[in-house]
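Methods, example record. To illustrate the input and output format used throughout this study, we show the complete record for LuxR family transcriptional regulator. The sequence lines were provided to the predictor; the line carrying structure tokens was produced by it.
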Amino acid sequence: MFAGRVVAGSLRISCLRGNRCDALQGLSLPPEVGLGGRAMTLGRPVSVRDYSTASGITHEHDIAVGWEGLRALVAIPVAVRGEVAAVLYGGVRAVVQFGDQVVAQLVSAGYGLARELESSSERQRRIAQLRAAAAAPAPGLRCADLREVAEQLMAGMANTSDGALRDEVRHTCQRLLAALGGQSDAFPPPVVSARELDVLNLAAAGCSDAEIAEQLDVTVGAVQGAVRNLRRAFGVRSRYAAVAAARRAGVLS
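The corresponding predicted structure is encoded as:
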């Protein structure tokens, strides 16, 4: 299997699985070029029994496909918000006709990829908004709305497996929450225990429940209990709102 994203109207192969070589890596296919370009244009799966002799597609990349030894191929367009955002391929090194069940399985995999791409696109959109707001908060900005977006985004990313993206989101959200910290009425400072203060500091650094538990040598349940106490104490709905409220109240530097 292999796949690629559609960028500026062209498909670029970037992900290979089960490959023999890297001949397909980085190939660019505009609309109508090759099997993927054809699927991209039609917006539906396209398959060939034998790529080398197929007459319904163009053959600009025959050498690369030949190096990989592929014969039968199917290309599945992956649509996000009505536009083809990627193409997923399945291929075998034999002359065969793909059955309906195989194509249906690949289409199902394509739906899963579409959901991932849509989620990624939404995260990137929110990150861009937060960057702009953190860089230069505008007069009349609705601080509460921005805080809520930042808190939701940080909470949603806390357990993601993409470490680089998680760190980028943490940094951007922390900048925004710090910038908004002085623009609303302070909460009365509640009584916070030493352990809860430790949890606050680690949450402010963007740590997940598991990371906080490891740092403090306690259970995840204990961390979650401390977070619940902090949310109640500050009258907020999330850990990051508690961090922001603690900063405003002078409990957290």
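Annotations derived from this record:
DSSP finds nine helices and six strands in the chain.
Confidence is low (pLDDT under 50) at residues 182-188.
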